[in-house]
Design goal:
single chain; 119 residues; 5-stranded parallel beta sheet; Ribosomal Protein L15, Chain: K, domain 2
């Protein structure tokens, strides 16, 4: 018997987050959450990986950034940022003053206003 290929993530926490993102997108009329859900649905190797140096180059003071993937700790951020991501490396957590989960950002900014996707 041929084994079926697994389509989608097997991580129950990620599955739940993707469902909640899609629901919030519909409830609030905010397409940003649907886009994040689509990006998180991709295979791990295709998800975004962003270094802190890139965050420092492409952001401004006090911006709210979302990374639908992982933030790595190479480089420095010369200004204050709020960064939400699926995962953070330990060194990235130490260098960014405000690291939050995507769920926390969904509660703070349900409409997705002033939130920028980077990756």
């Amino acid at each position: 018997m041929k084994q079926r290929k697994n389509n989608g993530t097997t991580n129950p926490e990620l599955k739940s987050l993707i469902e909640d993102l899609k629901k919030l997108s519909l409830d609030e009329g905010a397409p940003i959450w649907k886009r994040i859900a689509k990006d998180l649905s991709k295979p791990t190797r295709q998800r975004r990986v962003v270094n802190i140096a890139k965050l420092g180059r492409f952001t401004k003071e006090n911006e709210i950034i979302i990374v639908p993937g992982k933030v790595l700790g190479t480089g420095d951020v010369p200004h204050n940022l709020t960064v939400a991501a699926w995962q953070f490396s330990d060194s990235a957590k130490g260098k960014i003053k405000t690291c939050i989960t995507i769920r926390e950002l969904m509660k703070k900014q349900p409409k997705g206003k002033s939130v920028r996707i980077l990756g």
